[in-house]
Amino acid sequence: MSSTEKTRAHPPRHARRGRGPIAKRWIYWKRRYSNPVLRDWALLGCLLGILIAAACTIIDFRLGAIVMAVVPAGLATMRAMPPPWDEVWTNRSKSVDIGTGLFFALVLVALAFIVPESR
């Protein structure tokens, strides 16, 4: 061995114990969310709809309720579309999903006009 070569007493850290828990979690999240699936976009759309409805509630209670009713109605509409748009849900009845979404949209709109507005 020449004098210019380094000798190591121990192998490098990654060779001894593998990756740390933070590095493993980072790799998992990077792989998982690098290509969002349709389910992720549907969830993001629901969250944005809820935030917009909350902002509209500041303007008018009924407007906020109507905008909030668009979220389940939009999900029902998305479920009624042909593949691949309806593949957000698995192992459930398509007609029950559509009916439930439209039912809750109608309930929200009905509540918006039944509940008296306080001034």
Automatic annotation (TrEMBL):
It comes from the Bacteria. The chain crosses the membrane at residues 42-75, 95-115. Keywords: Membrane, Transmembrane, Transmembrane helix. This is DUF3017 domain-containing protein. It comes from Brevibacterium aurantiacum. The lineage of its organism: Bacteria, Bacillati, Actinomycetota, Actinomycetes, Micrococcales.
